[in-house]
């Protein structure tokens, strides 16, 4: 059976339309899957960033606390150094006085 050119063109157009619908649907499905995958990845990275920020803040707090302790101990060291110098001066003065008495 011989198809007329018009019928042939209509069938060809129908087949091409169906093919385009199938391919378009597959592309949309792939695009949707890719988008969902990217959204999940973004959520995971955002969660990781939040955890890192909390850890950073905690470390910063601990560092500030340690710096305060270091400052306090540094002051105690300065006080100890002054006391040692005072004691050494007193001992030197006592030794000198003892030598002078002889």
Structural commentary:
This protein is mainly alpha-helical and 102 residues long. It is built from one helix and no strands. It has one helix at 5-101. The protein starts with a helix and ends with a helix.
As a percent range, the share of strand residues is under 5%
Q: Structural class from helices and strands?
A: mainly alpha
The oligomeric state is single chain
Spatial gap, N to C terminus = 146 Å
- Biggest sheet statistics: none
Annotation field: number of helices: 1
What average pLDDT do the residues reach?
A: 88
Order of helices and strands: H
Query: What spatial form do the alpha-carbon principal axes imply?
Result: rod-shaped
Key terms for this structure?
102 residues; mainly alpha; 95% helix
Task: Give a quick rundown of the structure.
The protein has one helix at about 5-100. By secondary structure, the protein is an all-alpha fold.
Layout of secondary structure:
Elements: H1 5-101
């Amino acid at each position: 059976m011989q198809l007329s050119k018009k019928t042939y063109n209509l069938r060809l157009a129908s087949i091409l339309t169906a093919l385009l619908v199938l391919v378009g649907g597959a592309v949309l499905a792939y695009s949707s899957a890719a988008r969902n995958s990217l959204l999940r990845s973004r959520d995971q990275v955002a969660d990781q960033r939040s955890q890192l920020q909390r850890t950073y803040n905690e470390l910063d707090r601990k560092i500030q606390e340690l710096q305060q302790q270091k400052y306090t101990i540094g002051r105690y060291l300065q006080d100890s150094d002054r006391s040692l110098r005072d004691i050494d001066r007193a001992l030197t003065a006592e030794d000198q006085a003892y030598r002078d008495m002889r």
